[in-house]
Write a structure and sequence with these properties.
8-stranded mixed beta sheet, about 25% strand, 14 helices, 10-stranded mixed beta sheet, 26 strands, about 475 residues, elongated, Rossmann fold, 2 domains
């Protein structure tokens, strides 16, 4: 997307449902387009952390989340313009099925909503196992369900052979002749991506080496008509702003610090980043930097502890339960958390970070590993999903992120629960979380001294003042220190 006056390419890779193959197709297209020398900027619709990490490995550019419910239309449009300004192709991977979103009665939070906001066409991935002429009814329904959505064509996945493919093509030709078949991936030619309880294995653990990427690129080149795809997805960006065209991009990329001058730095915030702590929205980290924070990345799994010159800490989510033994063995890390909490340094933790600040983590095998013990309870892994879905935190008490009356949107996704709160402990809560299905409100956002911990992954794009407030609290602590 080098030239505002010229034609560019952008499209949404979407699916009929979760598990149809859109992630594999997206990764394959990133690899194949990159192999052609094209600069591809990846995006992911929805609150997911794992897919963007995989995108980033292949594209060599930080993938960004687009979300119609957590952040508004202006935020999404601005980020899309900004990060595609110096790219040749913008590739957006959808979430769930094309029209699935926040609820069943609207398009809020759906891939279709995002595609319409950005004016990009949809490329529908269809899992055609055990399907023949019925594919035409399926595709017809998706193509004409929403007249406001542009449709570039379909990619068949898990095709049974040439005879099967002929059935599929004949079905579309007779019932949807205007629908382009952009590709057909055979059933036996698939590249497996390992999965676990929160979804795919993270990019931090599964390094997508060059041979794997080359295999994926070759698969896509062989079975997808990339020239036709590019022909169908020409894109003109109507409102690119000067900041976007200037190529200004943050340097937040997998543990990389953005350089700030000494005058710009108001606070230094420690951010653990490794296989155990890898769920961070790049937007949140960027907002901290814009507010004057220098981010100090470190790895507890490598034996590191909080950097001694930090004035705050942000413990993101991830998989601490899988590395509980290593985290529990890093006594220097846990002691540095306890010491800084005792000194009233601001510490903000989400999900996996909350688990690390608790008394223990009980794994799915029933083994308990002691943690920092700052929060008066432990956490226990369950064999089932405990919480999943969008939520918003209405702040009800002064805290690191804001004042009563302010609202920040985010989501929950975890298989653990709080266990064995100390009998003599009294907890204060910073948030009220509303259940959109039942209307019930529950307290969350655990406050212990200068620590704020929650299961909710917040997207500060919904309330940019939260990052500003957190940096201010860290800066004030540094002055008092």
């Amino acid at each position: 997307m080098r030239n505002i006056a010229g034609q560019r390419h952008a499209f949404l890779v979407c699916g009929t449902h979760s598990g149809c193959g859109k992630t594999t197709v997206s990764l394959g297209l990133l690899a194949a387009l990159g192999a052609r020398g094209l600069r591809v900027q990846p995006f992911k619709v929805g609150p997911d952390f794992i897919d963007p990490g995989l995108h980033t490995q292949i594209a060599g550019r930080q993938s960004r989340n687009l979300d119609g419910w957590m952040v508004g239309r202006d935020w999404n449009e601005s980020n899309f313009r900004r990060f595609t300004a110096d790219a040749d192709v913008g590739l957006i991977e959808g979430v769930m099925g094309l029209f699935d979103g926040y609820d069943g009665g609207s398009e809020s939070g759906s891939s279709a909503e995002m595609a319409k906001w950005l004016g990009v066409p949809a490329v529908l991935v269809v899992d055609v196992r055990s399907m023949a002429r019925s594919v035409a009814a399926l595709v017809y329904g998706f193509q004409y369900f929403d007249a406001g959505l542009k449709f570039a064509g379909v990619i068949f996945n898990r095709v049974g052979g040439e005879k099967h493919l002929k059935y599929l093509r004949d079905a579309l030709c007779s019932s949807c002749p205007e629908t382009a078949v952009l590709g057909a991936i055979p059933r036996e030619e698939k590249v497996q991506i390992p999965q676990r309880h929160l979804g795919l294995v993270t990019a931090e653990e599964m390094k997508l080496d060059s041979s794997w990427q080359n295999q994926l690129a070759a698969l896509v080149e062989k079975h997808i008509d990339i020239d036709l795809l590019l022909e169908k997805t020409g894109y003109f960006m109507p409102h690119a702003d000067s900041a976007a065209l200037s190529g200004e991009r943050p340097a937040i990329l997998q543990g990389q610090n953005r350089p700030l001058s000494a005058r710009e730095v108001r606070a230094q915030i420690a951010v653990p980043r490794d296989e155990a702590f890898c769920f961070y929205y790049p937007d949140n980290l960027e907002l901290l930097e814009k507010a004057g924070a220098r981010l100090l990345f470190f790895s507890p799994l490598k034996g590191e502890s909080l950097p001694p010159d930090c004035s705050g800490a942000y413990l993101g989510g991830g998989y601490p339960e899988l590395f509980a033994e290593a985290l529990s063995s890093n006594s220097a890390f846990l002691e540095s958390l306890r010491a800084r909490a005792a000194s009233k340094m601001p510490i903000y933790a989400e999900c996996g970070g909350l688990m690390t600040l608790g008394r223990f983590i009980e794994t799915s095998q029933g083994r308990r590993w002691p943690m920092a013990g700052i929060l008066p309870f432990g956490t226990r892994m369950l064999g089932r999903l405990k919480a999943l879905g969008y939520t918003q935190a209405a702040i009800c008490r002064e805290c690191l992120l804001g004042s009563p009356g302010e609202v920040i949107r985010g989501h929950e996704f975890h298989y653990s629960e709080i266990a064995e709160q100390a009998e003599d402990a009294s907890l204060e809560f910073a948030y009220e979380l509303g259940n959109r299905k039942t209307g019930l409100v529950r307290k969350e956002g655990y406050l212990v001294g200068s620590v704020l911990a929650s299961y909710v992954h917040l997207h500060w794009g919904s309330a940019p003042q939260a990052a500003q407030r957190f940096v201010e609290q860290c800066a004030e602590w540094a002055k008092r220190r």
